[in-house]
């Protein structure tokens, strides 16, 4: 389970991301939360008829964490594909599964420790200032549960993507795409049906579900609005579909990561994708999305027949997408 | 004994390694030679576990390393670059290796570190040669029985090169370690290896001892009034290494005495035996175009 060799290697590789992460969790967020107690006093003493405060520190923490999680995963798995680190670790007497698991557990450990520290510091600030008079402490449990699951899901997804991509550039792009892929693909299909067949499709329930499982949107539930006059606070309740979505990301991508790392596809390190067939699939998605995007732009700016301009835009987009992908592939080959 | 049996590796629809079989014995140094792209690095990377094999087996004393993962502590690899290790300090590297290899000899490592005057600091203060020496020291201190070195002397100055080779010989002479070393520096390889493997287009073209090859083949310098006759040029047992004007350098593969007599009877202006080198064997095995 735990091996000092891999722990030392991982900590050395990801040191810069860890420094930033702990700086954010131990200094920036607690300090910002403490500042809210000063804002609270100012609001109470102001002549403003509406007295209220907005606590956005936790959703901000989540947003910064999302970026940090990708950087963290890149330092643990993406960079080493270009630095010779992969050869070094695969030649050590550990199985690929152990190697992947060591990276994952290392990340999980630091994410949990960082959030735990922020939770303790925020609680101390909460009870030593007037904030506790207006915001119930118990909502911290809800906020931190969402934040921890959100960061773990982001980290696990990005780490697993690193076992499919051969370069950190493609790791960043594919991670970003994967996290919004369901909504992007769904809306692109609807856009093409509307653009080419002039037929409107709208499924309210599907859209609601997609929003709930689109990871970055989970952070909406971590902001607090407090009305100081009535002591009412406004925070979105926990959505079980959203929680289930984040847990699913963690489980599914952890398994994908273990499986792909175990295949030792190290011959294509440095290229966009480690697996040729997967590369073809991504090429198709890339061209399709660029095509759809350009088609939407052309149909929006032209005043003639929408269907024809959409179709022309789609054709141009497919050619542009193909050339762009070809260029990218050539650059990383 | 580490035995490789029928090892094959396919990369992008191409058979990069085809049915490779050989053995590495403790106390011996085996040189892995071949042209660029012959599959040397792929072979080493497949053996040490960086790449997945498509077929074949690797055993240590009869036991498959794929069935008994613990046997992998008997294999250690030194890559051709020190890029990755340069971010660590000596202390951290020792910690990494000693927790990965249960037989890591820490005291011997520090003794040798002192002997070669390598500072116990961060590797940022190390030169390329110092980093290579340190990497080699770490590799041999693991206590692994089979060491795989990929171009360890690349880009080193002659003094460090000599130290590296000396270090390899020192460790192998204990009889506890078998080494496979891949290199393009044939002259220095020749000084230390017992066996050599010649890879050509993913196949094992030759697997023999250096001594055996030097006895089997004979390198001659001959000069005739006119250039070398077609009888010798087309002789299946004669390999023309080079031809400059009237002077030819040839390698006689078989029937040494008989061919020598034939060459002698053609009344040469010059006929003398030259010392055979690993580089000559390389050209002979490669069978490429002659160089003039």
Please render the helix and strand layout as text:
The complex is a heterodimer of chains A (333) and B (292).
Chain A: H1 4-13, H2 15-45, E1 52-55, H3 57-78, H4 80-83, H5 85-91, H6 96-128, H7 131-134, H8 139-161, H9 168-197, H10 204-213, E2 224-227, E3 232-234, H11 240-262, H12 276-301, H13 306-332
Antiparallel strand pairs in A: 1-2, 2-3
Chain B: E1 2-11, E2 14-24, E3 29-34, H1 40-48, E4 55-60, E5 63-64, E6 75-78, H2 90-100, H3 106-115, H4 128-141, E7 146-150, H5 158-172, E8 178-182, H6 186-192, E9 195-200, E10 203-209, H7 210-216, E11 218-223, H8 230-233, E12 238-244, E13 247-252, H9 256-265, E14 270-274, H10 278-286
Parallel strand pairs in B: 3-8, 3-9, 6-7, 7-8
Antiparallel strand pairs in B: 1-2, 1-4, 4-5, 9-10, 11-13, 11-14, 12-13
Helix pairs in contact in B: 3-4, 4-5
Throw out a few tags for this protein.
heterodimer; A: 333 residues; mainly alpha; 2 domains; three-stranded antiparallel sheet; 13 helices; B: 292 residues; alpha/beta; Rossmann fold; Alpha-Beta Plaits; six-stranded mixed sheet; four-stranded antiparallel sheet; 29% strand; elongated
